[in-house]
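Tokens for chain A. Residues wanted.
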């Protein structure tokens, strides 16, 4: 009969067992197989949780109100400060030097005009002497030149006959006066140019900054020009004294300032300087007291509170949400790629869903801790107690990595610590110190928890994490220069130290819930189940002591085999302890518990097969009532696979006439299912090997080795290990481990002198109790 045909009859029983194993999962188990769904949930949920927020319930006090409690700035922020911005702009305007235009070409133009005037004058006088003018009262020179020339000046020119000496004298006076700087208002220059002036040469197009000291010789057009001209005219021999006044009036009327304030250019430069000033902000540091209880709210504080409340909405701007969301997407994709390297398809889907849910859970826990810290700081008094940053050091950053370590192992825990550190940094506004602190706490927690396997040992892990938090805080404070109050630093140190126990407390509280939620059996739970005082094991030892001893021996074998191939040795040992608990309901039907007649001798082989098969279903029922984890229940269901009960099958063939009725092999096979992991495959082999080893007479190493090889070969040929992913190399290692354990278990000892334990005791010989009684009587 083929294997397919032989297993067809046990399929209904197999389905019943599978339903029994999956009854606690149901719709939730199906949801955990949808990692894409949970990836979408974690992206949306974490993005919302990671958005930086101001503290909730900010007061809406108006100017003049009295503060009813201290208001502490919840996070570092900068708010627009119009007053400060305007003050800086005013400073920038004041620093702009006035622009004065210097025109050196005025001297040349005026000198050319004077030359033209004298030339015209001489021409007129020559024409007058020739009689061409006919005694005109006013010469045409007033029409031919742009200079202002009155009758008095013209008479001076006629008196001097427009001589070359007078012309030279006038041009020299113009040159001397224009050698200095002439301004329209010297007092305005002094007032505007206290810091100097910007002097632009209109002829060359250059400009330079001139300090006020260099402008001390400037001539004021209104008050100083007349004196300067008079002094220069008096020095000229060609100018008679009677000509001083008209010549002075002529030069004063035609001389214009060569240094002129360019108001338009100055105003433009002032405006540009003001425009270049960046808007100033009011920088508020986290933990800073904005206003104390009992103080009157100033307009500035009222404006700050209003802007802080508005900022709470501004922080949810689409770009920020999109950026955080994309980062969470990258994290989820990274988990997908990394877990693909270490797990199979079905296990990967389950683990991904777990990771996404844990990310959401512990990000929410951090957000809750942040909210509590802000609430405590907001309603506390004093600068130290009101510093929200001090309380943030107590956030349970190690809770997530420790939980992931216990559920999935150290590699996912380390990666989870990195993701959580990035999330904490985002949540607290991108603070680098938060990322370093969170990463340190998470890594130390995961690595320290790896060394402990029971819940009581977690107390020491909390202390280790707390000390690591304190050291990390010290390093960060040294890096930042130890700012702030001493009281605040002491409070920060206390909170950092308390962060370790808080993290481990959170992980310890969440772990049992997560074990049931995800169907994961942690090493801590396995250690609890390995306690021999567990009710089910205690009952097994009393009601089926032979099965109990068999289970202990199977545990030793299975543990050695799992260690040889790097499987979970603790898990397989605990599974071995419970794999045969179903036998204690009918212990007398199993040979290791029989102390009298064998009940199988009086029942049919088919009935015996049903009784033997029933210990699996009854074991699953006992495990369900005892709330044993799925991992142990799978071991109960699969520790025989679909193996054939050879003894009863052959007995049935011997008792039934082949011509009348055919014995179906499927009726004498265990219902299964077959093992689906390395640990369960090793348990199947260990159970068979241990039972077979008890049948050996004078078990020598050769007999043990041949027995192990035959059982391994039979299990392979029967397809019992098809789904365990065990390789031939690993099977060789497991066989060697079994060989080592069994040879040490059944090693030969020398005979005790004077005691022949192998000799059959004669019925007439007194028993040891009788001998002891006689000895006591003789001594008495």
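Reply:
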């Amino acid at each position: 009969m083929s294997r397919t045909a032989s297993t067809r009859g046990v399929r209904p029983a197999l389905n019943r067992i599978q339903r029994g194993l999956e009854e606690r999962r149901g719709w939730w188990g199906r949801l955990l197989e949808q990692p894409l769904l949970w990836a979408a949930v974690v992206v949306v949920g974490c993005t919302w949780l990671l958005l930086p927020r101001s503290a909730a319930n900010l007061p809406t006090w108006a100017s003049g109100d009295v503060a009813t409690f201290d208001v502490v700035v919840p996070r570092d922020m900068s708010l627009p400060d119009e007053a400060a911005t305007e003050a800086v702009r005013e400073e920038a305007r004041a620093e702009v030097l006035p622009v004065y235009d210097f025109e050196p070409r005025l001297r040349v133009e005026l000198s050319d005009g004077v030359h033209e005037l004298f030339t015209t004058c001489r021409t007129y006088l020559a024409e007058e002497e020739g009689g061409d003018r006919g005694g005109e009262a006013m010469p045409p020179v007033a029409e031919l030149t742009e200079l202002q020339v009155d009758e008095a000046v013209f008479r001076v020119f006629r008196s001097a006959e427009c001589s070359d000496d007078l012309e030279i004298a006038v041009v020299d006076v113009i040159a001397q006066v224009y050698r200095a700087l002439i301004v329209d208002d010297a007092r305005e220059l002094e007032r505007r140019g206290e810091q100097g002036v910007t002097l632009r040469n209109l002829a060359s197009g250059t400009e330079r900054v001139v300090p006020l000291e260099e402008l001390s010789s400037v001539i004021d057009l209104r008050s100083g020009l007349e004196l300067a001209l008079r002094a220069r005219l008096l020095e000229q021999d060609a100018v008679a004294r009677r000509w001083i006044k008209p010549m002075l009036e002529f030069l004063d009327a035609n001389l214009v300032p060569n240094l002129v304030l360019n108001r338009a250019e100055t105003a433009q430069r002032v405006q540009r300087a003001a425009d270049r000033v960046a808007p100033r902000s009011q920088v508020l540091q986290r933990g800073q007291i904005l206003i104390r209880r009992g103080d009157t709210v100033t307009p500035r504080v009222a404006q700050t509170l209003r802007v802080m409340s508005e900022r709470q909405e501004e922080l949810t701007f689409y770009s920020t949400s999109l950026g955080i969301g994309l980062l969470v997407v990258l994290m989820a994709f990274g988990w997908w790629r990394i877990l693909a390297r270490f797990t199979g398809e079905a296990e990967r889907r389950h683990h991904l869903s777990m990771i996404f849910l844990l990310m959401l859970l512990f990000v929410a826990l951090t957000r809750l801790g942040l909210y509590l810290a802000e609430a405590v700081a907001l309603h506390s008094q004093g600068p130290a107690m009101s510093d929200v940053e001090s309380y943030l050091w107590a956030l349970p950053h190690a809770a997530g990595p420790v939980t992931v370590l216990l559920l999935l192992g150290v590699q996912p825990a380390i990666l989870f610590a990195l993701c959580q550190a990035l999330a904490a940094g985002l949540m607290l506004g991108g603070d680098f110190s938060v990322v370093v602190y969170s990463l340190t706490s998470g890594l130390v927690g995961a690595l320290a928890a790896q060394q402990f396997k029971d819940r009581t040992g977690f107390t020491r892990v909390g202390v280790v994490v707390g000390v690591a938090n304190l050291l990390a805080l010290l390093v960060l404070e040294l890096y930042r220069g130890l700012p702030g109050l001493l009281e605040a630093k002491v409070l920060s140190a206390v909170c950092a130290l308390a962060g370790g126990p808080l993290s481990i407390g959170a992980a310890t509280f969440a772990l049992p819930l997560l074990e049931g939620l995800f169907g994961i059996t942690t090493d801590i739970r396995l250690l609890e189940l390995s306690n021999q005082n567990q009710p089910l094991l205690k009952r097994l030892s009393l009601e089926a002591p032979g099965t109990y001893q068999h289970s202990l021996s199977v545990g030793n074998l299975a543990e050695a085999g799992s260690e040889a191939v790097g499987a979970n040795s603790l898990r397989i040992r605990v599974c071995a302890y419970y794999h045969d608990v179903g036998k204690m309901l009918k212990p007398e039907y199993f040979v290791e518990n029989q102390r009298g007649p064998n009940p199988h001798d009086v029942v049919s082989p088919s009935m015996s097969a049903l009784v033997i098969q029933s210990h699996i279903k009854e074991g699953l029922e006992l495990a369900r009532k005892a709330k044993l984890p799925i991992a142990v229940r799978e071991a109960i269901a699969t520790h025989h696979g679909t193996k054939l009960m050879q003894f009863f099958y052959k007995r049935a063939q011997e008792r039934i006439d082949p011509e009348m009725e055919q014995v179906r092999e499927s009726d004498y096979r265990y219902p299964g299912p077959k093992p689906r992991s390395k640990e369960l495959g090793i348990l199947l082999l260990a159970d068979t090997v241990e039972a077979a080893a008890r049948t050996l007479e004078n078990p020598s190493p050769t007999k043990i080795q041949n027995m192990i090889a035959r059982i391994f070969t039979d299990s392979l040929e029967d397809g019992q290990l098809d789904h365990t992913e065990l390789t031939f190399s690993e099977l060789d290692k497991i066989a060697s481990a079994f060989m080592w354990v069994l040879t040490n278990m059944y090693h030969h000892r020398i005979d005790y002198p004077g005691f022949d334990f192998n000799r059959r005791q004669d019925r007439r010989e007194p028993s040891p109790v009788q001998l002891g009684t006689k000895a006591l009587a003789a001594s008495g």
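The domain at 555-745 is CATH 1.10.3210 (Hypothetical protein af1432). The longest strand covers residues 197-201.
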